[in-house]
Design brief:
24 helices; disordered C terminus; single chain
Length: about 725
């Protein structure tokens, strides 16, 4: 592997634009903190000047010649207000200088003794690209690699560098691609002045972002006090909040200037590092890697989403990088086409720290380089025991996330968990196939356990099932014509429900905020009336279809209850028992569907209020509406959770028998935890809609087995996802 690196690349000459970028970035980013400190000093001096110059307000005729206590108080406040506001302003401007960023997840450190091949390969690669060797190599679970100073500011004077490698990169790339990524990072290593400038620029830019956007207990306390104290004194706090907001707007302007200049420099650095990568692995492999990395990142995000699903099932995957690679291999062509289209269309923005992929590929193609390294083994071969490293890094993640609550026995293999997910997916597919995609969660099917009994006349039941099957096949084309306008009308009705609280609170709604213009009460009522009229017009046809669908399902399950018929089906006893559990769960979840959809509406209004408050933290109207909707959401979450605590989870679970509520949420947040209930509502709605779909799908799968036993094959699969009428929020 090491000998496959043929010589060294031609040194990359630093272009003029790169030097200009470094000079501009360093100049601007050093000036910005000085401007900020000068602003603090100016405010402090203004307060001092007022305090020693305007003492006459306390002893002037305004205070002495009048006997009115109100006039004396006014003179005192006139003197005190600028002092109080100035002191508060200086404190709020100075506190960000002392605040510390949140701690980041610690990577796993590798040792040369345990991974000799990796370190030897990295050393040889560094020599080939004319870069200093790293003093340390770390690995983490990000789809990324980075070069940085090991001890931050203390390492800037030397070459004390650390290379951090994302294990998913090792799992998902071949050696030529991965070595190219390393060559890119070592290209940064060779940029001595650039690396140091980047560190300063990124540190200052990140600090400015925190100052502008981050809020802490001080901000919350001042907001709380401004509302609690008497307005005759509270107006000082309101003014202070206004000036704090104004200084943050000034800082926002400085931040944007800094980001624009820093972005220019960082993009030049990326172009320079890309040239190292192209010369080492070849410009064709560079383009290949650039198209692979977004797909790997998307698959990795899927893995994190699956982690939540596995956790609810009482299991945790034992190898996160392997799960990511498994997901990347299963990505449908539609996803790959989407990323290709995005790459072709995306342009580099003024504030971007990285150039657009197509610009980077064009830059690499100019090298016309075949590369000095062409070995295409799996990159994981660089490690003695790569699966063990993946499991160890995954274990580190769980220990950090769960602390003492982590139970190693909950870890399961990727194959087992993927097989479990595929079984769940089969249930969802069965639901789509059974109803040919004609289902909306606003009108959930509710088969009743009370309507299902064993029939003495099996032949009559079989004929009835065939009749229902023929009727529903005939109804599919017709109901689709009614469902489409009904879905659109239902969506508009949902929008009016979400817009109404905002209009009632006199919060301005832009015409583009929703799919239809709801910027005024008159427009809202018009949209609502039209939507209701459409739903009334389509209700009869859809209800007729739903009654046929329920009758078909109930008849099939009823046949399963007949011992005479059940003998025709393998595992009939187990299916019969399973169907009872599934029916009970479907009935309970169906009864909570309206309340669940109401949760979605409440969260949508709260999210809108949150956006308004992020732009203007002093927006009292949005703040009141946020808390009002939050109180309603809290009550709704508690009510749904209480109902679902009485129903068993209808599938196998690692913890044994649990309730649906326990499956969805371990515990409810504490009283008054608005953010906690907001997050709990998201988990609850997502889980309930998905579990309802899965449970109903499992019932449909059983019903299909019954239909096959009477000579009715399953309906065809739906090839086009876009034709699916199953509605998900």
């Amino acid at each position: 592997m090491i000998q496959a690196i043929e010589g060294a690349i031609e040194p990359v000459r630093v272009p003029l634009m790169y030097r200009v970028g470094i000079f501009l970035a360093l100049t601007v980013m050093v000036l910005l903190p000085l401007i900020y400190l000068a602003l603090i000093g100016a405010v402090g001096y203004a307060v001092y000047w007022h305090a020693i110059t305007n003492t006459g307000l306390l002893t002037s005729d305004l205070g002495a010649s009048r006997t009115s206590g109100r006039a004396r108080l006014f003179a005192f406040l006139l003197y005190l207000a600028p002092v109080a506001i100035g002191v508060i302003l200086v404190l709020f401007m100075f506190k960000p200088l002392l605040s510390r960023p949140q701690k980041r997840r610690q990577p796993r450190k590798l040792s040369r003794a345990k991974e000799p091949l990796l370190f030897a390969f990295v050393d040889r690669l560094c020599d080939a690209v004319h870069a200093p060797r790293p003093k340390r190599i770390d690995v983490d679970l990000q789809v990324n690699a980075s070069a940085s100073f090991r001890a931050g500011m203390l390492s800037m004077l030397g070459t004390d560098l650390v290379l951090t490698i994302g294990i998913p990169l090792l799992a998902g790339l071949n050696m030529r691609q991965f070595a190219g990524v390393l060559a890119h990072e070592f290209g940064h290593f060779s940029q001595g002045a650039g690396m140091r400038t980047t560190y300063v620029v990124r540190t200052i830019a990140h600090w400015f972002s925190r100052v502008v956007y981050e809020r802490d207990a001080w901000d919350e306390k001042m907001t709380e006090l401004s509302h609690e104290v008497d307005l005759r004194v509270g107006w000082i706090l309101f003014l202070a909040r206004g000036f704090v907001w104004l200084t943050r707007r000034v800082l926002w302007c400085l931040m944007m200037v800094g980001n624009a200049v820093a972005g220019f420099m960082l993009r030049q650095m990326e172009f320079d590092a890309d040239r190292h990568e192209a010369r080492f692995s070849g410009n064709d492999v560079f383009a290949e890697t650039q198209s692979t990395l977004p797909l790997l990142g998307y698959a990795d995000q899927q893995s994190w989403n699956q982690l939540g699903d596995f956790y609810r099932e009482g299991k945790l995957v034992d190898n996160m990088p392997r799960l990511t690679v498994s997901n990347s291999k299963k990505l449908p062509n539609e996803v790959r086409d989407y990323f290709r289209a995005v790459t072709a269309e995306t342009k580099t923005g003024l504030l971007d720290t990285h150039p657009a992929d197509r610009d980077r590929v064009t830059n690499a193609e100019r090298e016309a380089a075949a590369g000095i390294f062409r070995l295409a083994y799996p990159a994981a071969h660089l490690f003695r025991n790569f699966p063990a490293l993946c499991r160890a890094a995954t274990l580190d993640l769980y220990k950090e996330l769960f602390g003492r609550k982590f139970d190693p026995s909950t870890m399961a293999s990727v194959d087992d968990l993927v097989a479990h997910q595929e079984a769940e997916q089969n249930d969802h597919v069965a639901l789509r196939r059974y109803l040919q995609g004609h289902l909306t969660f606003h009108r959930p099917l509710r088969p009743s356990p009370e309507n299902i009994t064993a029939s003495e006349d099996v032949d009559a039941q079989v004929e009835l099932l065939k009749k229902h099957r023929a009727r529903i096949e005939k109804a599919f084309p017709q109901v689709g014509k009614f469902l489409e306008p009904a879905k659109e009308a239902q969506s508009q009705l949902v929008d009016t429900k979400r817009a109404r609280p905002l209009l009632n609170a006199k919060i301005k709604i832009s015409p583009e905020a929703f799919d239809v213009d709801l910027s005024s009460r008159q427009k809202l009522e018009s949209v609502r009336d039209n939507a209701i009229e459409t739903l009334d017009r389509t209700d009869s046809a859809i209800a007729k279809f739903e009654s046929i669908a329920v009758a078909r399902l109930e008849t099939a399950i009823g046949l399963l209850r007949s011992p005479q018929f059940a003998s025709n089906i393998s595992d009939a006893e187990q299916l019969n028992k399973q169907s009872r559990t599934l029916l009970a769960a479907v009935a309970v979840m169906g009864s909570q569907m309206d309340a669940t959809i109401n949760l979605l509406d409440l969260r949508a209004v709260m999210a809108c209020c949150g956006q308004l408050l992020s732009a203007d933290s002093d927006n009292e109207t949005a703040n009141r509406l946020l808390h009002s909707q939050g109180d309603d959401l809290t009550l709704a979450v508690r009510a749904i959770h209480r109902t679902l605590l009485n129903e068993a989870y209808p599938f196998d679970h690692a913890k044994g028998q649990i309730t649906i509520a326990e499956y969805m949420l371990d515990d409810l947040p504490h009283d008054g935890d608005l953010g906690g209930f907001y997050d709990a509502a998201e988990v609850l709605t997502d889980s309930l809609l998905r579990l309802y779909s899965r449970t109903l799908g499992a019932l449909c799968l059983i019903a299909e087995k019954v239909e096959e036993a009477v000579g009715l094959p399953p309906l065809p699969e739906l090839d086009d996802e876009s034709s699916d009428n199953i509605e998900s929020e």
